[in-house]
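Quick entry between incubations.
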Amino acid sequence: MAAIIAASKPSDWQPLDPENTLYLQLPTGRVVIELAPKFAPQYVANIKTLARERYFDGLAIERVQDNFVVQWGDAAHTKPLGTAKRSLPAEFLVPARDVPFTPLADPDTYAPQVGFAGEFPAARDPAIGRAWLVHCYGMVGAGRDDDVDSGNGSELYAVIGQAPRQLDRNVALVGRVVQGMELLSSLPRGPGPLGFYTKGEQRMRIESVRIAADVPRRERSRLEVMRTDTRAFAELIEARRNRRDSWYKVPADRVDVCNIPIPVRRQ
Amino acid sequence: MAAIIAASKPSDWQPLDPENTLYLQLPTGRVVIELAPKFAPQYVANIKTLARERYFDGLAIERVQDNFVVQWGDAAHTKPLGTAKRSLPAEFLVPARDVPFTPLADPDTYAPQVGFAGEFPAARDPAIGRAWLVHCYGMVGAGRDDDVDSGNGSELYAVIGQAPRQLDRNVALVGRVVQGMELLSSLPRGPGPLGFYTKGEQRMRIESVRIAADVPRRERSRLEVMRTDTRAFAELIEARRNRRDSWYKVPADRVDVCNIPIPVRRQ
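Done. Structure below.
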């Protein structure tokens, strides 16, 4: 993988779009999230409104469930949402023709076809002409209550364990952690049901959530992500499918969509 | 899942065998590992020898690679192995007829068939009549160098991320964490290549590793694991395949072998 990245061309990469990059600032560092407006445009717009109105500042990590998710938002459910919408339509699926798609050849347990849509792991079903993002490690979703239109982006979660693919098509995925994942995944697990923290002092405070475009240039995390529609990424898929080094004796000859990291590097 | 456990019969469970249960004692608590002698008998015997000769006591967690593994052992590679063997044959596969197997109906990306062998997630290939344990979250394996017979159980790892199924059939899996997983998964990630810690003070010290049978009865973790060849477990698989609650709107109708937790409870 390092060799493929080293041999890649500048055109194999694209910089994060500052308008669709979120900085979740924790006392321990910055978590950088690439948003997915092609898949959840209204959620992304609402999250940006919330961020710009400082909704998340001073809230906290409220839940860390081992092998599942880290969740942040307003544990008390009392903070006003400002001008952000209270509920959003279910942005769980999009027309497949509306998004790029680089299919994986390998079979998947959950979906008829999996692959990559832009910089995100995704799936699609040719029978219904729909595509959706999939719950791999590091993907960020928006919590909702029982009604499909009850989410609004004020409660977000990131996957920190085995891909909970049963959530696919049931909830809006809004992006992916591209840097600082370890700041979330190494948090102490919550002692309450579903990994919720039970005491205020257990919750790590969110210092701020900002849109990269709103941050002075010199303070931005200048990152670029490998394009998934390139020969370099195709080589990376093949390298993950069959590890060619002296340690592996039985190459898998298969790969799960969630076992292919989409490389990120400093610009 | 809670309802299925509540409705289960005593015969749906079996207590951990004290002779094949390992207690990894960290300053933060006890990690309980169920060993898998049916799959890696020589590795399990060697690990027990190492534990009984106090090999692991005073060693440390040396590597925590995000979304991959936590590894512990002798970072300096200098501690004598005592009467334990220096190398072991590759216990990566067993004859399928030698182990129980409850197959899953769902397709798997990596193996012709997946399911459960005793209390462990497993796979098998009818074409070659072999079975093997699979690298799900919480599974414990024995590190090796490039030669397949270079491992000896003195370096152990636990999976803390998306199932690295490419390791299947390439390395000996020796057991599974059944309690205390969060003590491993929430450790700070190592800053070095492959997640190795780079300074001594970053490494959490191992207070001791003991076989449960060697610990006074009153100090044992009295745990039992749900049998996977029971109707209760079949119901649990179905419950994981199609979540029947008011939140899920599109049941997956499929499930990955690594998305089915094998329940553990206090006896």
